Amino acid sequence: MLSRFVPSSPFFLLRRGYSTVRATEGVLKTPLYDDHVALGAKMVPFAGYSMPVLYDGQSHNESHMWTRSNCGVFDVSHMLQHRITGEKATDFLQKVCPTDFAALQPFQFSLSTLLNENGGIVDDCIVTKHANDSFYMVTNAACRSKDTQFIDGELQNFQGGTSGVKHNTFEGVLLAIQGPKAHDVMARFTNDSLNDLYFGHSRFIKLEGFGTNEKVHVARSGYTGEDGFEISIPDEKVGVEFFRALMEQQEVKPIGLAARDSLRLEAGMCLYGNELNDVTTPVDGSLTWLVSKSRRTAEGATFNGAVKIISQIANPKTVPAKRVGITSKGPSPRHGNKIVSAEDPKKQIGEITSGSFSPSLGYNVAQAYIHKPYHKKGTEVLVEIRGRLRKAKVSKMPFIEDHYYREN
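^ thats the sequence. predicted structure below, dont judge the formating
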């Protein structure tokens, strides 16, 4: 059944009514909560936190297009930050992830996945290698408790719990600074060069003008398809002051969850709980590239679920459905909408996992799982939306060209 790929998502429920949902008692707040309120943000509960979805004076489309043309700043402090250290840290991460971290250079990072024993994705994550014995990882806010329990449980089982690997989590201000003018904006706040900091790499830099000599971690990355940075500031006071300084820059606007979702959809990025879950393998999720080629050998396949995942790679016909892009006009497809064959509308062939109107393109974009052979680019399909079948087409992802800052 396709439903095993697409569990219900609290984010989908949130997106149905941005303007009417309000944070309830007991939700957590990031260090920037008061600043969001002062900026006129509409706050909604998301992943246990009260988060900004839109700001006064900005529509969803305006926020989206501002990020594509200027510089948008996202508060992502709700995401969980980890340090994994110890002589066997690389070996441990290669047990729980399919990525070859031994091959990464210091201060290089990779998208990866935490895998359970069946090869299912516990969460997707960004892992930065600082050294063979020191890694920095960021995981999703909605999976905070699950991820912590998983990693700590795996550590207890790894080499009988005697490996000496340490796992710590920490809080602070975590900002995503995204858009074609992100570099110019960031350069105003540091004397350290950013010109040779390329996509997929990070470094520690000093922020100037905030009364501290402590360096902060900056990665050239993002979730929008644009050039940009993620900056981790453990000192909350410095983080709040830096955010306020960013808001004074004419190229900068704060951006909320609404535009964050449509930006990531255009860029073909997954959202855990929609496109991925703990029974979806990287191969199921069209993320085979996350399984490093060196990890597909008998010696390298030491990660959780390796037998199943390597078998899927070797025998792609055993994977019945594929994650694909969908484009359409009219009402936007949403999570859970059924996809049926254009030739036989009684035959369900897939299901939408995420969907939104694309401000950049002027039509709808979505992600879906579709059974083979209907997954091929250009295939005409029908999506059931509000009781009616709407025309749609299987399309290539990402839907837009990325603008990552890469070394020539």
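The longest strand covers residues 121-131.
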